[in-house]
User: Fold 4-oxalocrotonate decarboxylase from Brevibacillus aydinogluensis.
Amino acid sequence: MLTEHSYRSLAQKLVDAEFNRQEEVKLTAEYPDLSVEDAYRIQDELVAIKREQGHRVIALKMGFTSRAKMKQMNVNEPIYGHVFDYMSVDSGVLSFRELIHPKVEAEIAFILGRDIEGPGVTGAHVLAATEYVVPALEIIDSRYLNFQFTLPDVIADNTSASRVFIGSRQRRPDELELDLVGVTLSINGELKDLGAGAAVLGHPAHSIAMLANMLSRRGRKLHAGQLILTGGITGAQPLAVGDVVSAKWDGLGSIEFTVKE
Ligand code: 0L1
Ligand code: MG
Assistant:
């Protein structure tokens, strides 16, 4: 375990890396024994620092929700992070100069109508407590050199959270079979990846159930009105200046944006 002071200074290093667009060597290079618990303590400090700076948490996000990714990272549980107000883009333009090496992935996000408190939360509980589902594009942008990190590193780095585009079409969860909702992700007119909601732990509602159960171990719960990104349906695609990104969801509309300098 690290000291409180170390949690804070490591969090500050990651906040500075984000705002200065300065890639950092992964934390585990210096602290090889960094645990997942330590990593969430660093993430907590990162959230506290940003709140002190005047930023507001507008959503939670789940990551590593595909079985393939969990196997690759040798974990049996996804990871979660926080999305802040300044990360939400509604202009249709992603500003590359604010970022390091962004990638985009297509997701489904939930807006809760009721609190959800674990343990023992299931996908059915989540669907019953959900007000709407919306399409979302997440921009991930690791603060680590060349996206090189271990599981604790990426948790400490707020799961690479960077920007989000939230679609305007809201649907009730019972209007769609969310595991069967298909998504295509194209860049400059070329299809880069596609998938269905089932790519997220069999059903995106399972991702929220896992989040509620993970939070309950830390004495926390999900709140009515909260927006939650459930994890990538498509793989993350690297972005460059000039790219035009277009994603389409069955029954949930589309999102487009351009990457500008
Ligand atoms: O799915 C996710 O949002 C995980 C993001 C962290 C992994 C990465 O930066 O590649
Ligand atoms: Mg994601």
User: Anything to note?
Assistant: Helices lie at 4-20, 36-52, 67-72, 123-129, 151-156, 204-216.
